[in-house]
Design goal:
single chain; 415 residues; mainly alpha; globular
């Protein structure tokens, strides 16, 4: 190294050593978190090696939860390998969704495994969705969907109906809502359409309502809250005729929650009407949650805790930010063991906090906590991105500003 490079290496090493101390990490622990050798990191910190490899820069910055610019002392092109990998995996999933339907059997042999094993794979996929582990889920879904389609095509009678139910469970929430979260609304609509094809053969009102519930989700994401509410309302009417069926009350509660959410998005409604209608749907959901308790029916998370989390988001979306903070005071999101919903709770509180002068640091802390819980979900959330961009322009304590810049980098936001 020449003299200038030696000085640069010394300064970078000092920054890493200082940040590591602030994070209370040993040299060995940081090396393990970053996936580099202990000896390499030791030489970087002592200024004997110049940190210049993009992969190492990103890895060490990620382990320290800062932007690479905090290490280098200069801007650095954002690189998010996790985001790149999950979006790369969508290519295979796109082909799977476009190339298969219930009416056309896939060009593959049915899997040599029992239905119980397929059911376990569907449960695993939905656990990955609720954990917001989108990369792992996106990689698994093409084979799972293809195997289920092949199994359904080769089955008859009750076995075929069981496989069709599994196919519906694989398409949603795992596939459709993951695609929605990542911004692939068009593919998410194909997923709910494929699920609807399987459900039509079941002739089961509960599954018909389930299909309508997820269709409402995607219509809302596509920018049509009116169509979404129309669909959800029709499914509410259908379910109210079949409340004796197992799981019906929980699904009805979910339909009231999605109805309330769509109303917050409909800016053509007068504000007073929106608030009143949201409160009515929320009250129905709360009543049903008290009866259902915490459930996982249809791979969802309906119950008192999820209703309370929705109360935070609904008030935030209505602009009732004080009510959102009050609603969030007695919520324990860990109860439902769904990192995606836990992250949503903290992110929605963060969005509400950005509207209060002097609470900017608290808002940033909520966003950072949400990212720690479910990074792939939070980093893909446009509402969080908007709030983070806003906070970057505010005067914040240096350590908060640094952490927020790190989050902005991981989200691909420029400064």
């Amino acid at each position: 190294m020449d003299e200038q490079q030696q000085e640069t290496a010394r300064l970078i090493g000092k920054r890493i050593r200082t940040l590591r101390g602030e994070r209370r990490l040993s040299l060995r622990v940081l090396a393990e978190l970053a996936g580099v050798s202990h000896s390499y990191l030791s030489m970087v910190e002592s200024g004997k090696r110049l940190l210049k490899d993009a992969a190492y820069i990103n890895a060490i910055a990620e382990a320290l939860r800062v932007a690479p610019s905090e290490l280098l002392g200069q801007p650095f092109l954002p690189v998010d390998p996790y985001a790149a990998e999950v979006h790369a995996a969508i290519a295979d999933l796109r082909l799977t969704l476009m190339g298969m339907s219930v009416d056309s059997a896939p060009d593959r042999r049915p899997p040599d495994e029992p239905v119980t094993r397929l059911a376990a794979r569907v449960r695993r996929a939905n656990r990955l969705y609720h954990a917001a582990e989108y990369e792992a889920l996106a990689v698994r879904l093409p084979a799972l969907l293809a195997d289920l389609h092949a199994k359904a095509a080769a089955s008859e009678g009750r076995t075929r109906l069981r496989v069709l139910r599994l196919l519906a469970g694989a398409y949603h929430p795992a596939c459709a809502l993951m695609l929605k979260a990542l911004g692939y609304t068009d593919l998410a609509f194909i997923a709910v359409t494929r699920a609807g094809e399987a459900i039509a053969e079941l002739e089961d009102p509960l599954y018909t309502a389930l299909s309508g519930f997820f269709t409402a989700h995607i219509l809302m994401a596509a920018g049509s809250p009116e169509q979404a509410l129309t669909k959800a309302s029709a499914m509410v009417d259908l379910l109210e005729q079949h409340l004796s069926l197992p799981g019906a009350e929980a699904l009805l509660g979910e339909l009231h929650l999605i109805s309330a959410t769509t109303i917050t998005k409909d800016q053509r409604r007068p504000a007073g009407d929106r608030s009143a209608d949201v409160r009515a749907h929320l009250a129905e959901a709360e009543r049903l949650a008290e009866r259902a308790a915490e459930t996982k029916v249809f791979h969802l998370n309906f119950g008192p805790t999820n209703v309370k989390i929705h109360r935070v988001s609904l008030n935030t979306d209505l602009g009732r930010h004080s009510d959102a903070l009050q609603a969030g005071a007695d919520v324990y999101p860990e109860v439902i063991n769904a990192p995606g919903r836990q992250a949503a709770y903290h992110a929605d509180l963060g969005r509400a906090l950005t509207h209060f002068r002097g609470r900017e640091a608290a808002a940033a802390a909520r966003f950072l906590r949400a990212e720690l819980i479910a990074p792939q979900r939070v980093q893909a959330d446009p509402l969080v991105a908007d709030s983070v961009s806003y906070l970057l322009g505010k005067r914040l304590p240096p350590h908060v500003q640094r952490d927020l810049v790190g989050l902005a980098h991981r989200m691909g936001l420029g400064r």
